[in-house]
UniProtKB/TrEMBL annotation:
GO function term, MF aspect, one: dipeptidase activity
Classification via PROSITE patterns: RENAL_DIPEPTIDASE_2
SUPFAM superfamilies, alphabetized: Metallo-dependent hydrolases
Signal peptide: 1-23
The EC number(s) this enzyme carries: 3.4.13.19
Name of this protein: Membrane dipeptidase
Organism: Rhodanobacter soli
Length: 403
């Protein structure tokens, strides 16, 4: 579809309409570009998102909160770059594709896959939620470029190159320095490998977005050079506002914008507010929970939603409150100032450590819109931030595909 037609679809879904008062205030569409899922997603009843769950994103919370679309993440942790490590990563990724597949099969009257911007808007127009699939850590390709094609066939439309710890594609913003990986921006930080370049080029050909969240500064620079289409950061903040390696410095915010891309500001505690007291208290609680459960170490999938964990976290929240929507909007403002209103988006990182005071789960999504409005953003700005910019980039990436 031509750009004009796509924009027409977007514009046709205006703010007004015969909708309840609250929904009248809703932007044309709301897209959260980073939502994690547990490995046993849709496997155990407690992870069946058709029902009320303790997950921060389930279908009911999206519907009630006015979150129309989410990028569900195929994340795998970084292990060794050897045959056993790759095999495990491939298997773990497959489990997550299966989980998302089960959700789509079980609840077709509530949520549908969106593999194109048009499909996402059509789902929304039909009153359905959208799920888009995003890879986080291309280690799960198992060092085999053909698996990128397979991922595309399974519906993935965005490829996050790296996670915590360097992989076979590029260096990470958080390299594993304890095991000898060179610090970011040190002489040993090599940026992107030949395999990383091949993945970026193949993603361009397939029409997949290249996602540089978690990548080192050098890797971001390489991605900007290698990619023939705009790139995204699916969940990153601004380093000038809060100095954290996962946040992007101003020169990279500018460079991503200059190439037409988008940086989705993320509502993740440590990227918005430095709070060593809270970090220590959380670590202590996690260790206690793991010990009680007889585990070697804390395991988010099995432990995050235990009632005793939730009670402990509520106590911690009283003593060391999380960053607020004001902190979040402050970063968005800075990113808009540096990159421009056409190059910033929104992400939660829910169920992957994300969530702040005021946007603690998907049911509170309208609070974000209200905070942006209070901060002086116009309806047109808010429409861009909540999905307009992302859909533009996605459309451009798609148009350059060669398949
Ligand atoms: Zn992440």
């Amino acid at each position: 579809m031509k750009t004009t037609a796509r924009l027409a679809i977007f514009a046709a879904l205006s703010f007004a309409g015969a909708l309840p008062a609250q929904a009248q205030q809703d932007p044309p569409v709301t897209i959260d570009t980073h939502v994690d899922i547990p490995f046993d997603y849709m496997g155990e009843p407690r992870f069946d998102v058709g029902h009320d769950t303790r997950l921060l994103v389930d279908l009911g919370k999206m519907e009630r909160g006015g979150l129309n679309a989410a990028f569900f993440v195929i994340w795998v942790p970084q292990h060794k770059l050897d045959a056993a490590g790759y095999a495990k990563a491939v298997k773990q990724a497959s489990q997550k594709y299966d989980g998302i597949g089960r959700m789509l099969m079980m609840y077709p009257d509530r949520i549908r896959l969106a593999t194109t911007p048009e499909q996402l808007m059509a789902n929304h127009k039909a009153g359905l939620l959208s799920a888009t699939i995003e890879i986080e850590n291309a280690y799960s390709l198992g060092h085999d470029i053909h698996r990128l094609d397979a991922a595309f066939d399974r519906g993935a439309r965005s490829v996050g190159l790296v996670h915590v710890g360097n992989n076979d594609l590029c260096t990470s913003s958080l390299p594993d320095t304890e095991h000898g990986e060179p610090a970011m921006n040190s002489a040993g930080d090599k940026g992107m490998s030949d395999f990383g370049r091949a993945v970026v080029k193949r993603a361009n050909q397939l029409g997949m977005m290249v996602d540089i969240s978690h990548a080192s500064d050098n890797c971001v620079r390489d991605a900007l050079k290698v990619s023939s289409t705009p790139i995204i950061a699916s969940h990153s903040g601004a380093r000038a506002v809060l100095d954290h390696p996962r946040n992007l410095p101003d020169d990279l915010l500018r460079a991503i914008a200059a190439k037409g891309g988008v940086v989705d500001a993320v509502a993740y505690k440590e990227f918005l507010k430095k709070d060593p007291g809270r970090e220590a208290a959380e670590k202590k609680l996690q260790n206690a929970i793991a010990k009680q459960a007889g585990e070697k170490e804390y395991d988010s999938d099995s432990d995050d939603y235990r009632p005793e964990m939730e009670a402990g976290m509520a106590e911690i929240q009283k003593k060391y409150p999380l960053a607020t929507l004001d902190d979040y909007v402050k970063q968005i403002r800075h990113m808009v100032k540096i990159a421009g209103i056409d190059h910033v988006g929104i992400a939660s990182d829910f169920d992957g450590g994300g969530g702040i005071t005021g946007w603690k789960d998907a049911s509170e999504t309208r609070n974000v819109t209200a905070a942006l409005r209070r901060a002086g953003f116009s309806d047109a700005d808010i429409a861009k931030l909540w999905g307009g910019n992302l859909l533009r980039v996605w459309g451009e990436v798609e148009r350059h595909a060669q398949h």
